[in-house]
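Write out a sequence, fold above all:
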Amino acid sequence: MKDLRIEIDDKSGFCFGVVRAISEAEKALAGGETVYSLGDIVHNRIEVQRLEKLGLSTVTHADMPRLTGRRLFIRAHGEPPTTYARAAELGIEVIDATCPVVARLQARVVKAHERMRPAGGQVVILGKRGHAEVVGLTGQVPDRTIVVEGEEDLSQIDFTRPVYFLSQTTQSIALFEALGAEMRRRAANPADVHIDDTICRQVSSREQHLQEFARRFDAVVFVCGRKSSNGRVLFEVCRTANPRTCNIEEAAEIDPAWFEGAESVGICGATSTPKWLMQEVADRIGKIGKGK
């Protein structure tokens, strides 16, 4: 391990939507007043702690009644219209950092329901139930939106009726395509299944890149927050390409045993992983490599 080569993936780290949200938060915090984020601004505990030191306070919907006259930050994941209406009722100033890609998807969900309503159809979204983005998407209209996480959830769908199928922006393209094909296979009329690929390509393009990146090293360390849905998907991509891939949230979790016999280590992360955190991990591994 004395000459351990360490490389940080230059394509890993915050996606455009997260960069924009963090930038908006830092701008809002520059005046020194507290800003209240509705949920974790990013699914990375370490980055959230950094912003908390600058004055960001994480709150829930239940906290909104006490925030009259304060500033409420809507993160990149977006929110349903009811949240904005409630904020206006309570006299809360909203700082909206919804990712433009998510905002466009929200509009497509509304149009999907408009298209399915007269036909008695169903709107189905591939996504993680309870995830902030999915909550925002399903809350765009009062009508029911079916959320599926895998093939086992397709039993919720009535395949004698039309289906409009979309996806959370950070889901796997392979899974989305496989489920779309299965829906058409099960449908009474395959033409009644409309498939609308709404996966963010800035995120999805990382899958193939990470496969290639992970194969280049003896060991790989994937850095992401425990709550990151995107992180779980991309970690599995890396681990499939290189079984010696370990998943950590911060540098303190590193185990020197992971690198025994290794000459090279690749460091990569999710769309919610800050570059500075991957650099901390690289620095810690570097010290291990030098016997410190």
